[in-house]
Amino acid sequence: MEKPNAPSTEKNREPILTVLREVFADRRQVLEIGSGTGQHAVHFCPELPNLSWQTSDRPDFLPGIRIWLAEAALPNVLPPFEFDVLGPWPTGTYDAVYTANTLHIMPWAAVEALFAGLRPVLVPGGLLFIYGPFMVDGRHTSDSNAAFDLSLKEKAPHQGLRDVGAVDALARQAGLVLLEQREMPSNNCCLILRMACAFT
Prior knowledge:
By secondary structure, the protein is of the alpha/beta class. Helix content is 35%, strand content 29%.
């Protein structure tokens, strides 16, 4: 199998890493939901040696992730496991969850399942880091994002940019508090949330 490549990671990885150095400085166990090619994990983890980074994705992505991880041979990146937010969730717990460019690809039911599934997985005080393009108050933040949203919906009606307010509502239902909405290059942003209380 040829090693997969996601060119967008070359553009967004440094801005994301800058934020992760700050917000994940005191974290230890990270679950990445939707690792894609694995390029983010491979780029971040040499710079974040305090983290044990668990990669995951749907079955068709796992061979590509394994290629990147085998080549990088990083001691703090764990082999990917099969994971779909609509299916069974991992039984372990984490003090951080990371996901990038996933919410606009998932159907809304999967976005709902993602937040609902975090309850037993993310420890109290744990952080959720979400990166990608979003709408704000029902409006696109740029013409390019509006065009991207249209292209997603033309390709698959279940896809599309999510509104920060709708995502925040799901987060609050799951016991998460939005700490910060930080603007990022290329009309993207990151949402940083904290699990406010434990669930039984």
